[in-house]
């Protein structure tokens, strides 16, 4: 089975600092991949390179069989890659429905052609219902709690109807029940057919969620396999305990 | 309210003002009013890029002057009718806006702002050294005594005022339509969070280029009749301080989040400055504009429109 | 063609001296823009303010302009400290620094310039000092003292600041705050306080740069605006946050301007720096030595 996402030997440097060193990674359709690693190991840089916020210097990113090097972020979103940001970045001057409307107008429309305004509205509300925010549909992002912002962030990413969703540390700083909330949401999204890469520090969530686990340390991939095997990998243990 | 209705209302108001001045022979209305209308165009134009997209343009004077010097350039060949010159001014300024945007909009907003400053100085230096358009000595434009319009003989200043009124209506209709369109929606996402907008599928570079082009074109249009208004065009007056500072101060003081803000800012500040010109030295005039700008930016970031909206919200909440 | 060659060499020398001076003018923006990410386009206005203060005390009390500026340093530092506090409270804290912060500094630039016009008028002002006038002749080559002294002074200041930034705790904290605020907080240093100090230093350098400016050339209030382009061109060309980079860029720009001025006339000089800036932004925004 060919991979949905194939990160082929990509590297990224910032001046003299090597952020990513020949990363090789595959994600298959419908898979739930966990991506972990100590702070500064390059996880966010990898996400940025996959999504187009940054351009990798070497190597190639393949999505759905097609190369993506050189494509701008919005073009990659059109192709089916969506991400949520580590620190939520809502559109402050728009209410929740309008926040969800943006990817719908600019991404989904591109793929399927313009939809009727009422259809768009209905889909936006449905998405907000999925994350449990429909009761705040007409409110502004500043009126949301931390966990609600995270949910909005995920809902907005899902509004682009992606094939691949990258959830970047959506659970940092949340309570146990809030973490379970987000986790079950991600599970439901995966059941709908969305491939998910989960980037997290919270090991319990990662272990519960992932079918496969990849570990980045200092810009290199040091492990990639079944979660139970990976956590017993001595290099991984050293990377985390040595912190 | 539909765009057509809005346009008609504006046209009605504008025509009313013009006829009032014409019938009562208030020449001053036309001279002073011309500058205010000019500022309505400049502030609305600035706001499309600045208020809607969040990209500050310090070089408004340059786009304005480009329109003016396009007129001078063609005048030396053959005096074309002003409406044609307006279109030419729009085209030239629009293209320059597009070009400059293409070079710098991939960078952060701060770099774009600095680049606009740089562009203004480079353009001014080029014009100062270009003898064909008069260089630093300036250029004279000869006006006819009166202009025939639809069979009526209008005084020249009335004719210019009429043209600028049309331009002001065009820019207001344009900025209002944009604000309510999907384009404006996209602009708002760029202003709020460009990275998130890109990630959501918004083609930010393309939208920013559209904004810069429209903004530049409108400013060029405002500048095209200027040589005829002033009669003698010097680089110092075309590239002058007042255009740069006012096209930023007026939208910010009026309120950048809606099309009304630049209108309010232009009328208020414009009138104030017209009144002040006769009473206080122009330097003090500009000082006050600068102080108002700093004060509003710090205390009332959403301008007068923002203050009014807050009042309304508080009143409605009771 | 001996005549042309000598002229060329003298232009280059004048350019290098000018470039050295430009380094002092730019170091403040290197700090505020390069390290603190604050687009203080009013910096040249503060420099002109420094020039006028140096002129005022020099003309009325006969004090050497450089001495005046040294005395003015703490005042400018306090001014910078206060302005940053206002900037932070009004804009940075609310994340609105892009549009409103820029407009703020633009307004400030305006207010300073117009105030100077009101107080001093638009006539050119210049100072007198023992080193203005005489020229050092080495062979066929001229080193006007009125350019040599500012150049040397500015290099000393530049060197001093470079040492400060690399050797002292506060200095390194300033470098750190530009790269990683979080890490700085974990080091138990208050990033806001560090930024206040840094911005204060930035404005303080303007006092000195102003004195040097009025030694090199007569000033009038709108001279500041020419320097906006120069200062940002040098900063961007040298690579933001790289002080040695900006020194090289300053020299480069000084030489280019000097040669253009000598062979094509001074009215083209402003276009050189601003044109350079545009080209750099368009084609190599990371500068020559950028991170």
Give descriptors for this structure:
heterotrimer, A: 243 residues, alpha/beta, four-stranded antiparallel beta sheet, 40% helix, C: 291 residues, mainly alpha, two-stranded antiparallel ribbon, globular
Contiguous low-pLDDT stretches of chain A (5 residues minimum) are: none
String of helices and strands of chain A: EEEHEEHEHHHEHEHEEHH
Taking all Cα atoms into account, the compactness measure Rg of chain A is 18 Å
Approximate helicity band of chain C: over 70%
CATH-derived topology of chain A: Rossmann fold
Q: How many domains make up the 3D coordinates of chain A? A: 1
What shape does the CA trace of chain C take? globular
Shape type of chain A:
globular
Q: Output the structural class of chain C.
A: mainly alpha
Topology readout:
The complex is a heterotrimer of chains A (243), B (318) and C (291).
Chain A lengths: L4 E10 L2 E11 L4 E5 L6 H9 L6 E6 L2 E2 L5 H7 L1 E4 L11 H17 L4 H14 L15 H14 L4 E5 L7 H16 L3 E5 L3 H7 L2 E6 L2 E6 L1 H6 L1 H8 L2
Parallel strand pairs in A: 3-8, 3-9, 6-7, 7-8
Antiparallel strand pairs in A: 1-2, 1-4, 4-5, 9-10
Helix pairs in contact in A: 3-4, 3-5, 4-5
Chain B lengths: L2 H22 L2 H26 L7 H18 L4 H23 L4 H20 L10 E2 L5 E4 L2 E4 H24 L2 H11 L1 H6 L4 H20 L2 H5 L1 E2 L1 H4 L2 H14 L5 H20 L2 H18 L3 H15 L1
Helix pairs in contact in B: 1-6, 2-6, 2-9, 2-12, 2-13, 3-4, 3-5, 3-9, 3-12, 4-9, 7-9, 12-13, 12-14, 12-15, 13-14
Chain C lengths: L1 H34 L7 H19 L3 H28 L4 H24 L14 E4 L2 E4 H23 L1 H11 L1 H6 L4 H26 L6 H16 L4 H22 L4 H15 L8
Antiparallel strand pairs in C: 1-2
Helix pairs in contact in C: 1-5, 1-8, 1-9, 1-10, 2-3, 2-4, 2-8, 2-9, 3-4, 3-8, 5-6, 5-8, 6-8, 9-10, 9-11, 10-11
């Amino acid at each position: 089975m060919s991979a949905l996402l194939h990160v082929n030997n990509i590297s990224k440097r910032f001046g003299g600092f090597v952020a990513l060193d020949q990363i090789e990674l595959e994600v298959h359709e419908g898979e739930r991949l966990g991506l972990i690693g100590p702070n500064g190991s390059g996880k966010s840089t990898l996400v940025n390179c996959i999504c187009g916020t940054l351009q990798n210097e070497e190597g190639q990113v393949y999505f759905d069989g097609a190369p993506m090097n050189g494509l701008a972020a919005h073009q990659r979103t059109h192709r089916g890659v969506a991400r949520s940001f580590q620190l939520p970045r809502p559109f402050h001057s728009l209410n929740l429905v309008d926040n969800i409307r943006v990817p719908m107008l600019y991404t989904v429309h591109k793929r399927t052609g313009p939809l009727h305004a009422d259809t768009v509205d209905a889909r936006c509300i449905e998405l907000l219902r999925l994350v449990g925010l429909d009761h705040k549909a007409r409110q502004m992002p500043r009126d949301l709690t931390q966990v609600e912002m995270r949910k909005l962030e995920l809902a907005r990413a899902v509004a682009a109807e992606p094939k691949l969703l990258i959830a970047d540390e959506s659970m940092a700083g949340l309570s146990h029940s809030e973490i379970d909330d987000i986790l079950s949401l991600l599970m439901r999204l995966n059941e709908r057919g969305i491939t998910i890469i989960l980037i997290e520090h919270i090991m319990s969530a990662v272990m519960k969620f992932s079918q496969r686990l990849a570990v980045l340390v200092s810009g290199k991939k040091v492990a990639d396999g079944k979660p139970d095997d990976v956590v017993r990998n001595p290099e991984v243990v050293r990377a985390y305990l040595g912190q | 309210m539909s765009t057509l209705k809005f346009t008609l209302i504006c046209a009605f108001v504008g025509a009313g003002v013009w006829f009032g001045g014409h019938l009562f022979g208030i020449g001053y209305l036309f001279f002073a009013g011309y500058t205010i209308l000019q500022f309505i165009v400049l502030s609305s134009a600035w706001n499309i890029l600045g208020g809607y997209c969040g990209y500050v343009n310090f070089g408004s004077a340059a786009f304005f002057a480009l329109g003016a010097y396009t007129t001078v350039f063609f005048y030396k060949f053959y005096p074309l009718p002003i409406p044609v010159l307006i279109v030419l001014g729009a085209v030239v300024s629009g293209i320059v806006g597009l070009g400059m945007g293409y070079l710098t909009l991939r960078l952060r907003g701060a770099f774009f702002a600095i680049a606009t400053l740089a562009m203004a100085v480079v353009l001014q230096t080029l014009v100062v050294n270009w003898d064909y358009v008069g260089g630093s000595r300036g250029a004279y434009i000869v006006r006819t005594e009166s202009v025939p319009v639809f069979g009526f003989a209008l005084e020249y200043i009335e004719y210019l005022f009429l043209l600028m009124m049309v331009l002001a209506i065009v820019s207001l209709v344009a900025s209002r339509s944009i604000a309510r369109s999907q384009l404006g929606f996209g602009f708002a996402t760029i202003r709020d969070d460009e990275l998130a907008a890109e990630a959501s599928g918004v083609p930010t570079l393309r939208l920013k280029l559209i904004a810069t082009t429209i903004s530049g074109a409108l400013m060029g249009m405002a500048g095209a009749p200027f040589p005829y208004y002033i009669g003698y065009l010097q680089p110092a007056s075309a590239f002058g301080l007042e255009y740069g500072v006012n096209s930023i101060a007026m939208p910010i003081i009026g309120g950048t989040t809606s099309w009304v803000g630049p209108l309010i800012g232009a009328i208020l500040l414009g009138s104030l400055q017209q009144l002040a010109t006769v009473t206080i030295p122009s330097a003090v005039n500009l000082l006050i504009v600068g102080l108002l700008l700093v004060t509003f930016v710090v205390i009332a970031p959403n301008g007068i429109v923002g203050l009014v909206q807050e009042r309304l919200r508080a009143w409605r909440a009771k | 063609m001996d005549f042309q060659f000598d002229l060329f060499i003298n232009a280059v020398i004048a350019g290098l001296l000018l470039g050295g001076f430009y380094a002092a003018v730019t170091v403040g923006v290197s700090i505020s823009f390069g390290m603190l990410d604050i687009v203080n386009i009013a910096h040249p206005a503060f420099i002109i303010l420094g020039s006028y203060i140096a002129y005022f005390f020099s003309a009325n009390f006969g004090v050497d302009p450089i001495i005046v500026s040294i005395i003015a340093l703490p005042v400018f530092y306090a001014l910078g400290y206060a302005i940053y506090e206002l900037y932070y409270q009004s804009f940075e804290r609310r994340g609105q620094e892009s549009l409103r912060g820029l407009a703020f500094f633009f307004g400030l630039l305006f207010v300073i310039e117009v105030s100077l016009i009101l107080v001093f008028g638009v006539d050119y002002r210049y100072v007198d000092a023992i080193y203005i006038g005489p020229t050092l002749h080495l062979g066929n080559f001229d080193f006007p003292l009125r350019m040599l002294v500012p150049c040397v002074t500015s290099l000393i200041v530049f060197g001093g600041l470079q040492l400060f930034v690399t050797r002292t705790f506060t200095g390194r904290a300033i470098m750190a705050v530009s790269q990683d605020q979080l890490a700085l907080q974990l080091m138990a240093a208050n990033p806001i306080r560090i930024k206040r100090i840094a911005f204060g230093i930035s404005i303080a350098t303007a006092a000195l740069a102003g004195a040097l400016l009025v030694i090199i050339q007569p000033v009038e209030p709108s001279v500041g605006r020419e320097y906006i382009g120069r200062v940002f061109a040098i900063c961007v060309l040298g690579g933001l946050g790289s002080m040695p980079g900006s020194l090289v860029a300053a020299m480069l720009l000084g030489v280019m301007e000097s040669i253009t001025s000598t062979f094509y006339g001074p009215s083209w000089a402003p276009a050189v720096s601003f044109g350079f800036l545009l080209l750099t932004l368009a084609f190599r925004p990371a500068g020559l030595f950028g991170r």
